[in-house]
From TrEMBL:
The lineage of its organism: Bacteria, Bacillati, Actinomycetota, Actinomycetes, Pseudonocardiales. Keywords: Monooxygenase, Oxidoreductase. This is FAD-dependent oxidoreductase. InterPro entries: FAD-bd, FAD-dep_Monooxygenase_BioMet, FAD/NAD-bd_sf. Pfam families: FAD_binding_3. Residues 3-334 form the FAD-binding domain. One of its GO terms (molecular function) is FAD binding. It comes from Amycolatopsis regifaucium. The keyword DNA-binding does not apply.
C-alpha cells in the first residue's frame, strides 16, 4: 500500500512517520513553499500529544526544540492568582511549547531523516481514486489519499462537497513573542489572565523570552488584513489601563506578532471514502481555548497508521479509525467551544491528558 498525504504540517508529517513505522510507504505534499508565514504564533503539545509522538519514537526532536512547564495559574481581572494547578498527572510527561514554524520544521526534518519524501509548493486542486492533481500540473499516485490539509481542507470538500464550512468562534486570537527580560515572567508555568474584556495567557522560556496570546471577542470580518503592528495595537488596547501584566508584555513585543480570526469544525459528517480519509483539523478543528489542536492531530496520525497496519483493507481501516476517534475529538471541540464562550471552566481535563496509545497493541475491526 502507498499513501499520498496532502498537507505537510503536524498531522501530515506525523502520519507519514507513523505509516513508515507500520511498514506503509507515504509521501507528503505541502501547499506552501516554506513555513514561517505565521511568525510569532506558538502552540503547546500536551501530555497526550507527547504520548502519541512517543509511540512512534518521534518525541526527541520536539523536546530538543521546545521548553516545558510544570503547571498553570489562573489570574483574575484585579491581578489576584486564584488557582494553581500542577501538570504532574500520574507521572505523564508534561506539555511542551514551541513556535508553530519551529514545530513544522522539526517534524519535516525528522520525516525526511526517516526516508520520507516531503514536497513543497504542491497545492491540491483535484483528486480521484489513486491520483492527486496539483496546481502546478504535477500529480501523485497512491492507493490511498490522506487529507491533513487543515481547517480549509480541500480533501474534505472532495470527500463531501456538502460538508459544513468552518464555524466562527467569535474570537480573534493574537500571538506574540518578546525577548525583553524586564517584563513580568512566568517561568515553567502558563499564567492565564481573565481581564474585564478579553483573555490573556503567557509563559516564559528558560532564556527569559516570553510567549503570549490574547483572545479578543470579535465578529468574523471585523479585523481583516491587519499588519503585525496593527494586531499588536488591537491586543494592547484590550488590556491597557488594567492592573495586569498583559499590556506591558504586549508593548515590549516587536514584529513577532501574528493574529487572525478563530474557527472550529464541530461536525464533519463524512470522514472517508473507500480511498480517502481525513486527519487532524481537516476532520475536527477545535478553538484554541483547550490547547489541544496539535495533540489531537498527533493522536489521529498514530491511530490511523495502526488501523491501516492491522486491518485487511483501507475501508475497514478507515471505519475503525473513525470509530476510535470521532466521539473523543467531537467532545474536545464542544468542550473547547464552551471554554471560548465562557460557559464552562477548564477544570477536569484528565480525560484529555491521560489518553495513551500503545503501538504494539493490535486494532480490531
Amino acid at each position: 500500500m502507498r499513501a499520498v498525504i496532502i498537507g505537510g504540517g503536524i498531522a501530515g508529517t506525523v502520519t507519514a512517520m507513523a505509516l513508515r513505522r507500520a511498514g506503509i510507504d507515504a509521501s507528503v505534499h505541502e501547499a506552501y513553499p516554506s513555513g514561517g508565514e505565521d511568525a510569532g504564533a506558538f502552540l503547546t503539545i500536551m501530555h497526550n500529544g507527547m504520548d502519541a509522538l512517543r509511540a512512534i519514537g518521534a518525541e526527541g526532536p520536539v523536546v530538543e526544540n521546545s521548553f516545558g512547564a510544570v503547571g498553570l495559574e489562573l489570574v483574575t481581572p484585579d491581578g489576584r492568582t486564584v488557582d494553581r494547578r500542577s501538570f504532574d498527572i500520574d507521572g505523564l510527561a508534561g506539555p511542551r511549547t514551541m513556535t508553530r514554524a519551529s514545530l513544522y520544521r522539526t517534524l519535516q526534518e525528522e520525516a525526511i531523516s526517516r526516508g520520507i519524501a516531503v514536497e513543497r509548493g504542491k497545492r491540491l486542486v483535484a483528486a480521484s481514486p489513486g491520483i492527486a492533481r496539483f496546481e502546478d500540473g504535477s500529480t501523485a499516485e497512491g492507493d490511498i489519499l490522506i487529507g491533513a490539509d487543515g481547517l480549509r481542507s480541500v480533501v474534505r470538500t472532495i470527500i463531501d462537497p456538502d460538508c459544513p464550512p468552518p464555524r466562527s468562534t467569535g474570537l480573534d486570537v493574537v500571538y506574540g513573542y518578546t525577548t525583553d527580560t524586564s517584563v513580568p515572567q512566568a517561568p515553567s508555568v502558563y499564567r492565564m489572565v481573565q481581564s474585564l474584556h478579553a483573555f490573556f495567557g503567557y509563559t516564559s522560556a528558560p532564556d527569559g523570552s516570553t510567549y503570549w496570546f490574547a483572545r479578543l471577542p470579535a465578529a468574523e470580518g471585523v479585523r481583516v488584513g491587519l499588519s503585525a503592528a496593527e494586531w499588536r495595537a488591537a491586543a494592547f488596547a484590550a488590556f491597557d489601563g488594567e492592573p495586569l501584566p498583559a499590556a506591558e508584555i504586549i508593548r515590549s513585543t516587536g514584529d513577532d506578532v501574528f493574529g487572525g480570526h478563530s474557527y472550529d469544525v464541530p461536525l464533519t459528517p463524512v470522514w472517508s471514502t473507500a480511498s480517502m480519509v481525513l486527519v487532524g483539523d481537516a476532520a475536527h478543528a477545535a478553538s484554541p481555548a483547550a490547547g489541544q489542536g496539535a495533540s489531537m492531530a498527533l493522536e489521529d496520525s498514530v491511530v490511523l497508521a495502526k488501523c491501516l497496519r492491522d486491518l485487511p483493507d483501507a475501508p475497514t481501516a478507515f471505519a475503525a479509525y473513525e470509530r476510535l476517534r470521532r466521539a473523543r475529538v467531537e467532545k474536545l471541540v464542544a468542550s473547547s467551544a464552551a471554554l471560548s464562550s465562557g460557559t464552562t471552566s477548564d477544570e477536569g481535563r484528565n480525560w484529555l491528558y491521560q489518553h495513551h496509545i500503545e503501538w504494539d497493541e493490535t486494532i480490531a475491526a
